[in-house]
Design a protein that fits this description.
Blueprint (H helix, E strand, L loop, with lengths): L1 H13 L3 H11 L10 E9 L9 E4 L5 E3 L5 E6 L5 E5 L6 E4 L8 E3 L3 H4 L2 E4 L2 E4 L7 E4 L1 H7 L5 H5 L6 E4 L10 E4 L12 E4 L2 E2 L11 E7 L2 H4 L10 E6 L5 E16 L8 H16 L6 H8 L7 H5 L4 E13 L3 E13 L6 E14 L4 E15 L9 H7 L27 H9 L3 E18 L2 E20 L4 H6 L3 E25 L2 E26 L12 E27 L3 E12 L8 E12 L4 H4 L4 E15 L10 E7 L2 E7 L8 E14 L4 E20 L8 E24 L3 E18 L7 E3 L9 E4 L6 E5 L1 E4 L2 H5 L16 E3 L14 E5 L4 E11 L2 E11 L2 E4 H6 L40 E2 L3 E3 L2 E12 L2 H5 L5 E15 L18 E2 L6 E11 L1
């Protein structure tokens, strides 16, 4: 019952902030009514065909005074001044501003927006009309999205808004980068995120872009769209278009906010007196005597001789802030835009911080009517400091495991190590002490310089040359004292120095021809050639037994041993030829054909070239005579596409046999790394079937896509012939399939005089499955040798993310153990209170042959829902996400119940005659002689991970133009936002979202840095 009660309280705490949401929602709709003497204006609003438009919004600018047209398209409005200006706006139509100028009757004809007819969207190496698209391309207006919800990084703008693009937070740490995947996992050994293209230049970094600088984002999802990027397009493509300079007077925009972060779900710890009594039970079971006297327990209860590790590691709050400024201006010949952003993020745990600076300068020049030039310089500087929050030695897990009855320091001031059950765990306060010493540095620098020149040769035919140079550096130096975790494990102080430098150059030449041949035919064609060169230099050095911990990594020769672990220089080159043609017939029938040929020095001479073709077709049924006159139907388009894209995430020189050398103390150790001269790129073949529909002048929009893709020649480690003298090597041997569907729905339920509501919903289902593993002796294989990988296996015919271990049916009760008719294993020895496992092969022994699939961490589907409301000058945004149909292996729970700790669930362990039906083993010998939570998973600790998360609520107020004009401001908005409001889930551990960040082993809770709830107060100002 105590466990049930604690779960109920925990679940309640996860939704305790919902009243805030409800309060804000109802506060928004509190009416503000006023009246005064006014002049009446009447009129009608029609489309260009003379049809009345119902529900058009008419607003007197600078005020909240407005109305809407009735069923006949007519309106009546009392205005405050004969010099007023009226704003006419309607979904799907161009907004109009009309001055009254003493008139009493104003009739208006509204034109359809180009967004519904001729709006262009960015595609690979060019643009196309939105109506002409034939592939699976999703887009968002980043500028509008940012107004509704503040975002510190670009991924925040995308999460839950684009079906098929999965974005999950990898950690609650300050500045942590999320994991992005488009339509599942395509590779075993070379898995990676989507290609990022910024202003037409591939190879960008989302962290280097200030979200406020972005105009629009397009995501290319199917192969017919991504094949134009050839060997880099298999994982999807994210196209970012930044804001461009505009001619006009100089203007300045400021956006800033301050954040108070608090723990979203602070782990609970057993009260110290309960733990002390449980420690006595533990000691009695193993040593036959109590550990603490009643007097000691009384002192513990009164707060003496105890220490709150969790309270001193997880802070009650953390203050962060963000500021960005942009300045733009120019004339018809030249314009510029400069922006800079600074973000200081402070984590809620320990002394973790992250500081990031972004900067950008963009210049456009019209040299002549036909000749244009532009340059874009942008970059980032990032500085990070934090604690270990992942894996076996997670700070969060240790804080839950270390007993409150052990003080952090002894009488000499040394860190107390080990615990009362002699398990020898590390004191988590040591992590905090290491950060206070501030002996570490972690810096990242990235800079991009881009330039283009374009010339219109003849009307419709444009030549464009693009050049890009990027320079990057990642540097860190760490010193671990004897009191640190590494020092505790090694028994001596350590240091690490790492320095990675990269340099790249890219040049692209394209010819684009866009021509409206006649009213029934138009064409958009692109051909191009692209060359690139990249260099990298990596050095990593380690040292043990430091002479001076204060000097540490800054002079690693002052140590007992010093090793040059890595010293690597690489150079790669590539050249590509590509072309695309898009043809539209009668605005009904559309076809796109793409071809790209890539060559790269990454592979051997005979395999460095490959081809990536694609085609797609679309039929716009709305333009057919049998649908054209249905006024309620705006669009109905059917799409099909097929294409081949590649994955060039192959390590440099993988085609060639290499020697790895480690240098230390005057000695060199060599390791032979076999190459594969026939290694090829992985290639993904994909079919896509889609439907686009829109109704009621854009008030309802719907997109559905079904895809079937298979990655062939996936790189995998296979067994090599015995005569090679080597055990294994890389081969193009595996196959992976991804099948799924995506739904995007946009609805505008209400567009009234003062109130507007728009809802956008996205839903995606994907199933990634291993079809073939290659030349191995089994139908399954381990996913790797790193910690945590032992809990997973790849199985032919099974989804990626199979959790592998022993199936537990609870704990041996006294009655079961004493029943001679119930078969018990001969090995290992079991007793009442021991874990009970299924003997899958009925051998009488519980061993590795009894391991089975006990769960799967790959979500079956996920969704996002974004609601935007406006009421007069107020705006409200409510954003939710959900992931469903997946399991989590709760490693912290397995570890914390495997030994003595103040973890609350241990109170519900098996106790003879008291709690015989427990699922947690009792104290005593042979409680679990077969498994270790470090290496073998048990189904006892596999839980359902489904969750719904209220991601954010933002309430804003836009100041009236009349007020702002008096203080020389063009716009001003103040807002309050809550992020990570609440999570509804049955999972007992930390934030379940964090467990699915690794696509190759999803569903593993490693005690990751806890999520935080953020309270933001922000201001947007334009001068």
């Amino acid at each position: 019952m105590k466990l049930l009660k604690s779960k109920i309280l925990r679940d309640a705490s996860r939704i305790k902030s919902l009243p805030i949401c409800i309060f804000m929602f109802f506060f928004l709709f509190t009416p503000f009514v006023y009246s005064q003497s006014r002049k009446q204006i009447t009129g009608s609003v029609q489309d260009v065909q003379g049809n009345p438009l119902i529900g058009v919004s008419i607003l007197e600018t600078g005020t909240s005074n407005g109305t809407i047209t009735d069923m006949n398209g007519t309106y009546s409005l009392n205005i405050s001044s004969t010099n007023a200006t009226l704003r006419f706006s309607y979904i799907g139509y161009e907004e109009q501003l009309i001055k009254i100028q003493g008139r009493n009757v104003i009739n208006v004809k509204m034109n359809e927006e180009t967004s519904n007819l001729d709006e262009v969207v960015v595609v690979g190496y060019g643009v196309q009309r939105k109506s002409d698209l034939t592939g699976a391309i999703s887009s968002i207006n980043a500028a509008e999205t940012l107004k509704k919800m503040p975002a510190a990084q670009v991924a925040d703008l995308l999460q839950g808004r684009i079906a098929g693009l999965s974005i999950v937070n990898s950690s609650g740490a300050a500045g942590a980068a999320p994991t992005l995947r488009v339509r599942g996992v395509n590779s075993i050994k070379a898995d990676g995120g989507p290609l990022v293209v910024i202003d037409g230049f591939p190879g960008g970094n989302l962290s280097a872009i200030n979200p406020a600088d972005i105009k629009s984002i397009e995501v290319l999802k199917d192969a017919s769209s991504t094949a134009i990027y050839g060997s880099r397009g298999a994982n999807g493509v994210i196209l970012i278009t930044t804001k461009s300079p505009k001619e006009g007077k100089l203007s300045v925009d400021y956006n800033g906010y301050i954040v108070a972060g608090t723990p979203a779900d602070k782990p609970s710890i057993m009260p110290v007196n309960e733990f002390a009594r449980m420690a006595n039970d533990w000691n009695q079971a193993y040593y036959g005597k109590d550990l603490y006297t009643e007097r000691q327990i009384t002192n513990f209860t009164n707060g003496y001789d105890t220490y709150d590790y969790m309270g001193n590691i997880i802070n009650d709050y953390a203050i962060s802030h963000s500021h960005d400024i942009s300045i733009k201006g120019g004339n018809d010949k030249m314009s510029f835009l400069f922006s800079t952003q600074y973000i200081h993020n402070k984590g809620i745990a320990g002394h973790s911080t992250n500081d990031r600076w972004n900067y950008r300068l963009k210049v456009d020049a019209n040299i002549t009517k036909k000749l244009k030039f532009g340059a874009n310089f942008y970059g980032m500087i990032n500085s990070a400091a934090g604690n270990n929050f992942s894996g076996q030695y997670s700070l969060l897990t240790l804080a839950q495991q270390f007993p409150q009855t052990v003080l952090p320091y002894d009488k000499e001031g040394n860190l107390t190590q080990g615990t009362i059950d002699n398990t020898g765990i590390y004191n988590p306060i040591g992590f905090i002490d290491e950060q206070k010493r501030n002996n570490n540095e972690d810096m990242t620098f990235n800079n991009w310089l881009q330039a283009y020149i374009s010339y219109e040769i003849i009307p419709g035919l444009t030549f464009r040359n693009e050049q890009q140079i990027n320079i990057g550096n990642r540097f860190y130096g760490t010193t671990s004292s004897k009191q640190s975790m590494n020092g505790f494990l090694k028994g001596k102080s350590l240091a690490t120095y790492y320095d990675a430098n990269s340099w790249g150059w890219r040049m692209t030449n394209t010819l684009n021809y866009t021509k409206e041949l006649n009213k029934n035919n138009r064409i958009n064609a692109t051909i191009g050639v692209e060359e690139s060169l990249s260099r990298s230099y990596i050095m990593r050095q380690t040292a043990e037994g430091l002479t001076s911990e204060s000097i540490g990594w800054k002079n690693m020769m002052l140590a007992e041993t010093s090793k040059l672990e890595d010293n690597e220089v690489s150079k790669t080159t590539a050249i590509s030829y590509f072309g695309r043609i898009n043809y539209v017939l009668m605005n009904r029938y559309m076809a796109t054909v793409t071809f790209r040929r890539d060559g790269s020095s990454l592979l051997s001479y005979d395999h460095r070239w490959d081809n990536f073709p694609s085609f797609s077709l679309a039929w716009n049924l709305k333009e057919e005579s049998f649908l054209k006159n249905i006024n309620s139907l705006d669009q109905l388009k059917l799409r099909y596409g097929y294409g081949v894209s590649g994955n060039q995430a192959v390590a440099a020189y993988s085609a060639y046999t290499q020697y790895d050398a480690t240098i230390g103390n005057g000695q060199i150790a060599y390791t032979l790394v076999p190459g594969n001269p026939i290694l090829k790129w992985e290639k993904t073949h994909q079919h896509n079937y889609g439907v686009d529909a829109a109704f009621l002048n854009g008030r309802i929009s719907f997109t559905f896509d079904y895809y079937d893709k298979k990655t062939k020649d996936a790189i995998n480690t296979v067994v090599l012939p015995a005569d090679t003298g080597l055990s294994s090597g890389l081969r193009n041997a595996a196959e992976i399939s991804n099948k799924g569907f995506e739904i995007t729905l946009g609805i505008t339920p209400i567009t009234a005089k003062d109130f507007y509501w728009k809802a956008d919903i996205s839903l995606a289902h994907n199933k990634a499955k291993i079809e073939k593993l290659g030349d191995i002796d089994s139908d399954f294989m381990e996913i790797g040798t790193g910690w945590g990988n032992s809990f997973y296996r790849y199985f032919v015919g099974e989804p990626i993310g199979a959790i592998y271990g022993l199936q537990s049916t609870g704990v041996w009760s006294t009655e079961e153990y004493n029943n001679p008719d119930i078969k018990k294993p001969t090995s290992p020895t079991v007793r009442p209170g021991s874990y009970k496992y299924v003997d899958q092969n009925d051998s009488g022994t519980i061993d590795a042959d009894d391991y089975v699939i006990i769960g799967n961490g790959q979500p079956k589907f996920n969704w996002g829902m974004n609601n935007s409301f406006t009421y007069k000058n107020f705006d409200l945004n409510i954003f939710l996400i959900g992931f469903h149909g997946f399991d989590i292996y709760n490693y912290p729970r397995a570890r914390l119940t495997s030994s003595l700790s103040p973890f609350p669930e241990l109170a519900e362990r098996w106790i003879a005659g008291k709690n015989e039906n427990a699922i947690i083993a009792g104290f005593g010998k042979d409680r679990d002689a077969i498994t270790s939570p470090e290496t073998v998973a048990s189904s006892t600790f596999v839980e359902k991970g489904d969750f719904v998360k209220l991601k954010s609520i933002t309430l804003g107020y836009n100041f009236s133009k009349g007020l702002l004009s008096k203080i020389n401001l063009s716009a001003a908005r103040v807002y309050f936002s809550i992020k990570n409001v609440c999570t509804i889930t049955k999972y007992s551990g930390n934030d379940p979202e964090l467990s699915i960040s690794n696509p190759l082993r999803p569903g593993l809770d490693m005690g990751t840095y806890p999520s935080q709830r953020e309270y933001l107060l922000g201001l947007n100002v334009s001068f």
